Amino acid sequence: MKVKVLQNILSANDQLAAKNQELLSQNKVLAVNIMSSPGAGKTSLILETIKKLRDRVRIAVIEADIASTIDADRIIKEGVPAVQINTGGQCHIDANMISNALESVSLAKTDLLLIENVGNLVCPAEFKIGAQKNVMLLSIPEGDDKPYKYPLMFTTVEAVIISKMDYLPLSDFNLSAFYRAVKGLNPKAKLFQVSCKTGEGIPDWVAWLESQLKGS
Amino acid sequence: MKVKVLQNILSANDQLAAKNQELLSQNKVLAVNIMSSPGAGKTSLILETIKKLRDRVRIAVIEADIASTIDADRIIKEGVPAVQINTGGQCHIDANMISNALESVSLAKTDLLLIENVGNLVCPAEFKIGAQKNVMLLSIPEGDDKPYKYPLMFTTVEAVIISKMDYLPLSDFNLSAFYRAVKGLNPKAKLFQVSCKTGEGIPDWVAWLESQLKGS
Question: In chain B, which residues have their Cβ closer than 8 Å to the Cβ of A67?
Fold first, then answer.
């Protein structure tokens, strides 16, 4: 008699995440889950991405925070549709929140959906939300030792965006040590060096996003 | 017949936190729970505090991270006893972890126990660990809007330490807006402006800590 092995029994969250992803793919929407510590510059990167891509790509944004609508307000000011999720204390987005938020997004009119997760280097890495791409920002002032302290986040993502490069001259951040640490955890990770203040590296990041759009 | 109202039924974590606090107080140890985002400078502040106070105060440190012993190693190099907690994925310290860690601390030989929580502005605020004082750092590069986005953390603490003040000239951080936001949530919060790089504000912070030691 053979023992029955039940594989791929997804958790309720993962099942819902898979449904979200199916809905997005059916509508030819590329969703990007953007994660980082608080204040690493997620919203600023989204605003710069909008500036560069808005003429040729239809963008929508989902913003998530414990509280407040500060970030969605900043996006809407740019004339881009944005939905704000308030998690009410929860330290990450889950698939159910995205499922609800997607009801307020015009998927037929969207090519690229940028999802800003709650500022947190831990829990967002543990919860799939249905985005096709997961990326993270690590800002220069946070220091180059973060891959050792928050390894799951660095292994979960396809791209690591080093932000606030304009702070580098003031900092003891060791870029080559950081690259080594990231590549040790996640050899395939794509790395970008950007500054939303000077514009450094934004074209590379945007070009990568566009290449992902073409692939989707 | 009167309805019996059960009040103050503490959760298992809160019960254990109360026990930790009792043990600390019996041993005349002041424990300070230090919280912030990843990379806001908790370890650097602890190292500066050690430098200023080590001649007259017996200090011990508990370091917590998801993974690695980088921070405890830095403390031990200074000749100060340090215990590293690896939470193995958990995004905050809980009372049970501190209860276990306290077994490795010589309480009879300690006046001040500095506890560095996991880098996270959300969950550490929700879990009592038994420290008599809870404080947080917010670094200049994180931005002045964080009290609106992470209100619980800012209401939980007795002191808010604005760190990396040396980055202020490069930043659009509005100090008076930040003070207003913090005071709106937590009128009694004590605020400090520090830079571990220039030494700015460290004496004020250390003087406050010493006044708390005398009160304990």
Answer: 148-151
The distance from CA A72 to its chain's CA centroid, rounded to whole angstroms, is: 15
Q: Hey, are the CB atoms on B148 and A68 less than 8 Å from each other?
A: yes
What gap in Å lies between CA A104 and CA B41, rounded to an integer?
A: 39
**How many CB atoms lie under 10 A from the CB of residue A100?**
11
- Which of B94, B140, B149, B154 to substitute to test the interface with A, most A CBs within 10 Å? B149
Give the closest residue to B94 by CA, choosing from B20, B8, B194: B20
pLDDT digits (tens, 9 = 90+) for B81-112: 999 999 988 999 999 999 999 999 999 999 99
In angstroms, the CA B180 to CA A50 distance is 31
The Cβ-side half-sphere exposure at A78, using a 13 Å CA radius, reads: 22
Q: How far is A172 from chain B (nearest CA, A)?
A: 11
Which residues have CB under 8 Å from A2's CB, separation 6+?
A: none
The Cα–Cα gap between B43 and B196 comes to 10
